[in-house]
Write a structure and sequence with these properties.
Radius of gyration: 20 Å
Strand order of the largest sheet: 1-2
Distance between the termini: 22 Å
Number of strands: 2
Helix content: 40-55%
Order of helices and strands: HHHHEHHEHHHHH
Low-confidence stretches: none
Number of helices: 11
């Protein structure tokens, strides 16, 4: 978040101060080595949790087009999920108060991905020897065909797929992928909510290969948009207050 849109790294003193009051960072337990440059410091944060790994990865939801400023040789896995499920999931996570604003996050991320994909495509074409820099997979195929999809991802990264990669279910709170949990929007969203999402991102949803429902789009007035904005703000504020208390 602190890298500029032009790829300029933050002033380190200002960055330390920002981290000092950042709720999520404070919960990680990371230590700050003030002898490091910004890229070295970010590398170190990852290694503090993954020092035993030869390949280190990170999940990034926003501003991921700026990562090539830190890791110019990084490879990217674009994981895309149905916007209607994402919108519903954002409400459950407290990131949005309704599906209209929930799918906004999906839309922003996908448009950002288009920008990054163009940069990576250009970099790949000009590189010698040629090396693939990115791959796209859907959440739905990862869940329903996880062995095949993981094998494909391993080939992209340059490692061999092993069944022990699925052992995480034995020592974490995560279960093995279950295809019952894809396309949850068909059960959990009302017709009106589906129409809201599709009214906002129908073109991009279709471009990503997700069929639209047969429901008609919604025409929203300025008052409707204001009510959705107010509902979104109120829900998120109450969610944060319940989870983190007053601050």
């Amino acid at each position: 978040d602190q890298i500029s849109a032009e790829g300029i790294f933050p002033d380190l003193l200002a960055y330390y101060n920002w981290l000092d009051t950042h709720r999520i960072f404070q919960g990680t337990g990371f230590t700050i080595d003030k002898n490091f440059s910004y890229p070295q410091l970010v590398d170190n944060f990852l290694l503090q949790k993954r020092a035993d790994k030869t390949i280190v990865g990170a999940t990034v939801h926003r501003h991921f087009d700026r990562l090539i400023s830190i890791w110019p040789e990084a490879r990217f896995i674009h994981l895309i999920r149905d916007a209607r499920d994402v919108a519903n999931s954002c409400i459950g996570a407290g990131w949005a108060g309704n599906v209209w604003h929930g799918c906004e996050r999906w839309q922003e991320a996908e448009l950002l991905w288009d920008n990054l994909e163009r940069q990576l495509t250009h970099a790949t074409r000009s590189a010698s020897p040629r090396r693939e820099r990115y791959i796209s997979v859907t959440y739905e195929e990862l869940i329903s065909q996880y062995r095949e999809t993981l094998t494909k991802l391993c080939e992209f990264i340059g490692v061999s797929y092993e069944e022990t990669m699925l052992d995480y279910a034995q020592n974490s709170t995560y279960d093995i992928p279950d295809s019952r949990f894809i396309y949850q929007w068909k059960k959990k969203l009302s017709d009106y909510e589906v129409r809201l999402v599709e009214s906002r991102v129908s073109q991009l949803l279709s471009q990503r290969g997700y069929p639209l429902s047969s429901l008609s789009p919604v025409s929203l007035t300025k008052l409707d948009l204001y009510k959705l904005k107010l509902q979104n703000w109120s829900y998120c504020a109450n969610y944060r207050r319940k989870r983190y208390g007053n601050y």
